[in-house]
């Protein structure tokens, strides 16, 4: 059994070796997700795009990779008492599913304002839902109470070496599926996904460009990169409910060193990208999942110095857990 | 160059040999579409389900397979004058795209009530749209006028050996992707899709069960099988805009002989299946495309004599060209 923060040669919380071990560990459980392409979107963007569709991952999002790696990294004594987390949704469902597969309890603290479909996923996978107020303080307080009551292990949604390693398996798959990729665009929130993806991708191809896609209303990573330190925001406001978290002390060093730039897009650009995912790619994508496409189509990307270096762009479609109502909002913004 | 109605050993309009030739012909152009599975839907249906996702085919529907085979079967002299068809949508877009790939004109007669997204697909692929009234008489009259004016070749949406052969390539792929499949559920309208799928599947595995899925408001295949002859309806009424055509003289003998049964479902069952495709499978599916899932979940299937013989069911998700408004209808039928 490895500690959750396994040591690495770079002093990061994960490395290519821990990511390769994660791949072996989760392989019996996780889907190898398909890569979709579209001549229409290539034509719109002026680039060749490869969509790594984690909306087809178990639980409907990439989060299952990290959660599965974390749960199956626990030794039997730890595992018996179960796992606990507080999450806005996809990590919660993923952890419930992974715990279910191992046959251990999952205690999931969920803020009352979480999207209904995400809460239903947690219940469907056998997780025990414990409600909190929306604030991070309330979520942490309730999670700590559960920890004390049960002796379960806290599995943080992103600030955790096993989680980062699990998410990094995306790069191992994607760069095998489309080795011509020279750029990856990855949603950024707490940084677990992009940290794993960047560590693995740069180990395989040191010249690969890693771009983060971040909503304007929660652009803490953009600010952090400018300021050279973790910068939290006093409030966040974006439709992308999966991208409201801030960088952690384990993800920040990786984001600082390995993420080449952050592309910031607004909610309208995200909604337009959701529509294109639906109408052109034929996939159900949550707002957070569509942000990579929003970024590649944005004016700010076209003005970015890296724009001319990108030819074959891998875009991580991070998840597809979306209430139908969000699509109605899309429709309401367009008279057709 | 083969004639469009190539002779076959069975005196059907196509056979396994013509389908294998079609596979070679379209391979440089068509996507090999992924097969999705879902433990949740397996659990709801009580069967192991394999979804062959033709919504990810070029043009957003299986129709590209047949259209591509037909267009690339033309000799150069024929091809130069272009192709013409009248279609409610997906065949039209597919033919426009295939013609575009060969660099020849495509004249597309479209009824004025066709879904907007399907018309846009035709235009996007460079097809020349010619409007008709919704009636079949008007569509045929206008198509004949175009034929006379241009000398183009009429490519019928389904009553055509090359079209049937192209659609049959789905079985070649699917039974390689999931050889354990013992049953196929396939949407039926004019019968081009299910004819090709049945011919190829029964050639590979004579014991495989072929079930058609048909909307209650356009159940001409169900009636035809009962009556032992092509039975047209005086009117059709279903949300599944791709399933309103009647069997043709080339598809009927194949449907009569090789389709084991027809499962009839109503529009509410189709809408519910669309919702499940969206929320569980994370794919955008048009009503016609969701009917296979509707069938496998229907009470009439559970009462069907073949129900107990089915364990591993391949479901052809025929297309994903859907206006967002249809999803709003879904939402309107459920208060959540």
TrEMBL record, chains A, B:
<keyword id="KW-0702">S-nitrosylation</keyword>
<dbReference type="GO" id="GO:0030378">
    <property type="term" value="F:serine racemase activity"/>
</dbReference>
<dbReference type="GO" id="GO:0006563">
    <property type="term" value="P:L-serine metabolic process"/>
</dbReference>
<keyword id="KW-0663">Pyridoxal phosphate</keyword>
<dbReference type="GO" id="GO:0008721">
    <property type="term" value="F:D-serine ammonia-lyase activity"/>
</dbReference>
<dbReference type="InterPro" id="IPR001926">
    <property type="entry name" value="TrpB-like_PALP"/>
</dbReference>
<dbReference type="GO" id="GO:0030170">
    <property type="term" value="F:pyridoxal phosphate binding"/>
</dbReference>
<feature type="domain" description="Tryptophan synthase beta chain-like PALP">
    <location>
        <begin position="28"/>
        <end position="299"/>
    </location>
</feature>
<dbReference type="Pfam" id="PF00291">
    <property type="entry name" value="PALP"/>
</dbReference>
<comment type="function">
    <text>Catalyzes the synthesis of D-serine from L-serine. Has dehydratase activity towards both L-serine and D-serine.</text>
</comment>
<protein>
    <recommendedName>
        <fullName>Serine racemase</fullName>
        <ecNumber>4.3.1.18</ecNumber>
        <ecNumber>5.1.1.18</ecNumber>
    </recommendedName>
</protein>
<comment type="similarity">
    <text>Belongs to the serine/threonine dehydratase family.</text>
</comment>
<dbReference type="GO" id="GO:0005524">
    <property type="term" value="F:ATP binding"/>
</dbReference>
<dbReference type="InterPro" id="IPR036052">
    <property type="entry name" value="TrpB-like_PALP_sf"/>
</dbReference>
<dbReference type="InterPro" id="IPR000634">
    <property type="entry name" value="Ser/Thr_deHydtase_PyrdxlP-BS"/>
</dbReference>
<dbReference type="GO" id="GO:0070179">
    <property type="term" value="P:D-serine biosynthetic process"/>
</dbReference>
<dbReference type="GO" id="GO:0003941">
    <property type="term" value="F:L-serine ammonia-lyase activity"/>
</dbReference>
<keyword id="KW-0456">Lyase</keyword>
<dbReference type="GO" id="GO:0000287">
    <property type="term" value="F:magnesium ion binding"/>
</dbReference>
<keyword id="KW-0460">Magnesium</keyword>
